[in-house]
Design goal:
This protein is 71% helix and 7% strand.
């Protein structure tokens, strides 16, 4: 260790001399000058650190090692000797112990098998519960979807019935009008019901004051009118 640190100290000394020369000679570049100055300082620090670490001599280390060995030997000599007693087991006791060991191994194997069975049952129960939950969720989603579809169909039927009753009511109230839509030969709309009749459809009587004439069917649709069903 001391030889290695001495080698590091020697290398650091050479580096210190080299960087000191480059530092003092380099006057053109300020950057290089600062660079060599930093390396010079690092080399000095490294040289002194390695010198401090390598301070104790090999003789001192050897003396300390010899003292430690001597102390260890003296402690070993002064320590009291402990006598150990060897106990011999008879053949009968050995057979009994062997049987007990075999029985314990069999019991352990049985317990491990039971544990594996319980774990398998638990896994099956968890799997069944997950499948049942998934099935219940699917059934609930299907039932909800069916209810929504039935509600939409019921609403649609209600709207159709309401529209039909409205048309019947409007036709019944307009049967006593002073004009018939089939006599005009034009596309005629009713400003009250916003229903228009095409030429060729079954006409009905209405008040001429409520009649709105259109040139094309698209004009009637653009005006917010809808076509009569009959």
């Amino acid at each position: 260790m001391t030889t290695f640190m001495g080698l590091i100290c020697f290398v650091a000394l050479i580096a210190t001399i080299v960087y000191a020369v480059k530092w003092f000679k380099n006057k053109k570049s300020r950057t290089l000058k600062n660079k060599y100055r930093k390396r010079f300082v690092i080399s000095i620090v490294l040289m002194f650190a390695s010198a401090l670490i390598a301070g104790p001599s090999d003789d001192t280390s050897k003396t300390a090692s010899n003292s430690a060995d001597t102390s260890r030997v003296e402690r070993k000599k002064s320590a009291p000797k402990v006598k150990t007693k060897t106990t011999y087991v008879g053949k009968g006791q050995y057979k009994i112990a062997k049987k007990e060991n075999v029985a314990l191994l069999a019991k352990k194997k049985k317990l491990l098998s039971q544990e594996a069975d319980l774990q398998s049952q638990q896994d099956k129960i968890e799997s069944d519960e997950a499948q049942a939950k998934q099935k219940a969720d699917e059934e609930q989603a299907a039932a909800q979807k069916q209810q929504e579809q039935q509600a939409k169909e019921a609403q649609k039927q209600q709207e159709q019935q309401s529209q039909a009753s409205q048309e019947q009511s409007q036709q019944s109230t307009q049967t006593r009008g002073d004009m018939n839509t089939s006599d005009t030969g034009d596309i005629v709309g009713n400003s009250n019901s916003h229903i228009y009749h095409m030429p060729g459809q079954r006409g009905y009587n209405m008040n001429s004051s409520n009649a709105v004439h259109f040139k094309t069917e698209q004009d009637a649709i653009n005006a917010g009118y809808r076509k009569a069903k009959v």
